[in-house]
Amino acid sequence: MRLHEILKKSEMAERKLTGGEKRSKESHFKKLKKHKDDFKKRYGDEAEQVMHAIATNRAKGESIFDEPIDVLTEAPDLNSAKSDPIVYVDMDGVLADFFAEWAKLAGVKTGNYKDIPPAKTDPTLDMMVGTDFFNRLPKFPSADKLLQMVKNFAGGYKILSSPLRGDHQNSGEWKKVWIKRELPIQPTEIIIVGRKDSYAVNRQDGTPNILIDDRGKNIESWRSRGGYGIKYQADEDGLDTIAKGLEDYKNQYMKEPEMAEENNTNNNYGISKNATLADLDNIAKNSTSKEKRERAHWLRNMRRGRK
Ligand SMILES: [Mg+2]
Prior knowledge:
14 helices; five-stranded parallel β-sheet; 307 residues; 6% strand; binds magnesium ion
């Protein structure tokens, strides 16, 4: 899309912002101001207008402005989590059985949404607009357990869910009603937005955040922005997918300091060469690994000149 077309489109979008979106737009605009010089270099006199356009589109969660947003993404540090990650959980296909209810609405006998004839896809989606469709979705039997696993891992979670196209406000309201009623472990925040990947990393320190989502495209763009994605579809994948994903995140980004010094350890079961006698005492007493306890005990005796 050409620049002037984008600006025109976003000007029209700006007129239609809701109260919440307006506030969100202001906050996006404030953040963009920090990059004002970059915008000046790139867009000259139109810099300010472009910034308003990006802020508007971010507030609406729309993706017509792909290019400039991606150019402005800070490169994440892939080696470590500097703070605790936030786990974002998708709703449809992960907690709520959107697809079964969609098939029902389309009158498909098999109950499988894949059997919805292409000609019926859009008309059935249109039938959801303005209704309480999202309030009626069945909850997957695995949903509560999944959220418990996430809570054990991160202490809490946030919902990150896309609105129905053409029904942003209404579908979002009903999703919130559903969440309040159905989920014994409540999210700390509910975010209804079309484009999820702006939450992929912690903007302050680059820590990769985690997204649990059934849509391959969402996972891909999350990863491309430096986040950590777990692809999970409740009616196809087991909860071991979640367990493994969280475990992998821990191993990849949250290594304990003594494990991170691996190159420095001569394979002493991860015990650092620089460990003091007090460190060794501590490991010998408290490590969860039997080998490590025994090794620390042995190393301590060696240092003291005993065998
Ligand atoms: Mg989904």
